[in-house]
Write a structure and sequence with these properties.
Helix content is about 85%, strand content about 0%. Helix 2 packs antiparallel against helix 3.
């Protein structure tokens, strides 16, 4: 099995197990609904950061694509960490709004950089 697929499946299984464990703890009265949501959403933010960390390490033959992968890796890793941090410490409404804005900003930065490289290559 491909290393990237194995890592992705591991993340998927881990988040499912974490969500089930948090739901079980909530039903037993150990944690409340807010904490359950924060745990799962924080794990999703860490998953986004992990995928961002993996982006520059994948093989890409084109030099421009490697540049985009590096910038995208940084932007997604940072946005995932911001997302996880917001879900850990910010008020619930702020975590939803600013967390989504952080991930969307990471995506926009990656897309804007790739479009800028493309237009620069066409100009040359």
């Amino acid at each position: 099995m491909n290393k990237d697929i194995a890592g992705s499946l591991t993340w998927a299984a881990s988040i499912i197990v974490l969500a089930l464990a948090a739901s079980f703890a909530r039903k037993q009265g150990y944690i409340d609904q807010d904490t359950t949501t924060r745990i799962v959403m924080g794990a999703i933010g860490l998953m986004v950061a992990w995928f961002g960390n993996r982006m520059p390490k994948t093989f890409v033959a084109n030099a421009s694509a490697r540049k985009v992968a590096r910038v995208g890796g940084w932007s997604m890793a940072l946005s995932g960490l911001v997302y996880a941090g917001l879900w850990a410490f910010a008020p619930f409404d702020a975590a939803v709004l600013m967390g989504c804005a952080a991930v969307l900003t990471g995506i926009i930065v990656t897309a804007a950089y790739s479009f800028a490289l493309r237009s620069q290559a066409k100009a040359n």
